Amino acid sequence: MIVVQDMIKRFGGFHAVDGVSLEIAQGEITGLIGPNGAGKSTLFNLIAGVHQPTSGRVTMAGEDITGLPPHVLFSKGLLRTFQIAHEFSSMTVLENLMMVPGNQQGETLWNAWFRRGAIAQEERRLRDKAEGVLDFLTLSHLRDEKAGNLSGGQKKLVELGRTMMVDAKIVFLDEVGAGVNRTLLKTIGEAIVRLNKERGYTFCVIEHDMDFIARLCHSVIVMAQGKVLATGAPDEIIRNEQVIEAYLGTGLKNRALAQPETAALTL
After folding, report:
1. Alpha-carbon distance 1 to 204, whole Å?
2. What PROSITE patterns does the record tag this protein with (predicted)?
């Protein structure tokens, strides 16, 4: 679905992304892992139009989307979340969801004056859809809570809910588990799997919790120093010597290989 070819991003003389080529298969959950500073979030930003590449190409379902701005990619069904949730803190959870779809009737002054009935009808439709999203994510009890009062994990669930308010084709989740307790992380993981299986969402997930990645993902891509280090199934990646060394360093590599269970937790 997404094909990245020879992607390079330089900041001055620093190569944050250095010749990356990879594919994200349609209908799958793909993990993107690597040490801090590996270039994972920068790659996400390049694909999602937040940064312009120095060189390289990105296609989505065969269409060249290189360098398109985020709002255009949003309209094409490519969505990206961030490590820190970007909620409207003074609005309720329900209102946060209802704000997502673009080109709403009430956004124009003409409609606000002369098409109030159409605006009210659209608002009822959006409210019904948002209520369904809250039910799906087991967040209905927080519908009237100000989004700024939510915990980190609850805000991540709301961000996931925002992707459900439009016709998302692929969603890039950046460190969905950051600052989230284990119980809520399990809930988030279950929601991702359900969206993948029941609604056909394609996901690419940055996450440091290898246990979480192994439970969710069909395949895993590993980055280090701006390059793709390895690709494969989660169980293959956990035991990959290059991957273990990239995370743990040469001194701990042999210990990790001798105790793969420990390696899986450490990665």
Report:
1. 11
2. ABC_TRANSPORTER_1 (PS00211), ABC_TRANSPORTER_2 (PS50893)
Mean per-residue pLDDT of the chain = 86
d(Cα 204, Cα 130) in Å, to the nearest integer? 24
Angstrom distance (rounded) from CA 51 to CA 67: 7
Residue among 185, 202, 252, 228 at smallest CA distance from 33: 228
Give the single-character DSSP code of 146: B
Q: Which residue has the tokens 């899986």?
A: 264
Span 76-108, pLDDT tens digits: 999 998 766 678 789 999 999 988 766 655 555
Give residue-wise pLDDT tens across range 12-22. Answer: 989 999 999 99
Strands 219-224 and 29-33, sheet pairing: parallel
Can you give the length of the chain in residues? Answer: 267
Tokens, residue 118: 């159409």
More confident residue, 120 or 55: 55
Number of C-beta neighbours around residue 32 at 10 A: 26
- What does the DSSP assignment read for 57-123? EEEETTEE-TT--HHHHHHTTEEE--SS----TTSBHHHHHHT-SSS-GGGSHHHHHH-HHHHHHHH
Task: State pTM to two decimals.
Answer: 0.84
Query: Which pLDDT belongs to residue 251?
Result: 47
- Tell me how far apart the alpha carbons of residues 79 and 125 are, in angstroms, rounded to a whole number: 22
**Which two tokens mark 62?**
């065969």
